[in-house]
Amino acid sequence: MGAMPIRIIQHPLAQHYLTHLRDETTSHALFRTLARKLSVLLALEATHGLKTTLRKIKTPLEEIQSPVLDEELVIIPILRSGLGMLEPIVDLFPKISVGYIGLERDEATAVASSYYRKLPDLKGKTVLLVDPMLATGGSAQRALDDIYKLGAAKVILLCIVAAPEGVALVEKAFPAVQIYTASVDRQLNASKYIMPGVGDFGDRLYGTS
Ligand code: URA
Q1: What is the DSSP string of 138-153?
Q2: Ligand 1 nearest atom to the CA of residue 188, by list position
Q3: Tell me: the pLDDT tens digits for 51-78?
Q4: Which residues are catalytic?
């Protein structure tokens, strides 16, 4: 079976937010706000297929069968920049469980090493893996390895910007993963940054540059 086709969200508001995220004159405060808003749009698009079940309720006028969500969700941000996408998605799905994977990339080699992992039970769960910049795909690959080993039923990868190199790696190694992004940019540069990209997402989010 081939890989699930990547989904690029085309909503004009998503593209508008992305333009301002890319703009180097955008302040850290505005960058955080835009990242939150864009994460909501990505999460809404990515959860279109969630299962629902009918529940009997009474409106003030009559009894009806009405749909409620019926899927156990887990969200896993890759630290640290994934934290910028976490809270707005937890607000949308208050029953979601939260796991954390801390990966840091060596600036010289761009190889990701793990410094933290705290995950809930993933068996049979639908996992939203959030990593704003899918660059080489190395971090996503490490995280996906762990997530599938722990028995997740389905994984959706949410990223704000992706590079063709990262998309290709994830599609090859994990064809069942559905990727949602606001853009697949041109390429990685020699330092493994996405071009044109947004720069260092974590630094822009937290003002550490
Ligand atoms: N991580 C970032 O924050 N930015 C990139 O362009 C690539 C990886």
Answers
A1: HHHHHHHHHHHHTT-S
A2: 6
A3: 999 999 999 999 999 999 999 999 999 9
A4: 105, 109, 200, 203
Cα distances from 51 to residues 66, 69, 70, in angstroms, run 13, 6, 5
Residue 36 Cα to ligand 1 middle (Å): 17
Residues sharing a CB contact under 8 Å with residue 60, sequence separation 6 or more, in sequence order: none
Q: Is there a domain that residue 1 lies in?
A: no
Count up the domains in the chain and report the number: 1
Domain hosting 128: range is: 7-50+71-206
For the chain, helix (H) and strand (E) counts, in that order, are 6, 14
Give the pLDDT confidence of 137-195 residue by residue, as tens digits: 999 999 999 999 999 999 999 999 999 999 999 999 999 999 999 999 999 999 999 99
The DSSP bridge pattern shows strands 7-8 and 178-181 to be parallel
Q: Could you tell which of 193, 203, 206, 208 is best to mutate to test the pocket of ligand 1, judged by most ligand atoms within 8 Å of the CB?
A: 193
Strands 100-105 and 73-79: parallel
Degrees, nearest 5: CA angle 87-88-94: 75
Q: What's the CATH number where 193 sits?
A: 3.40.50.2020
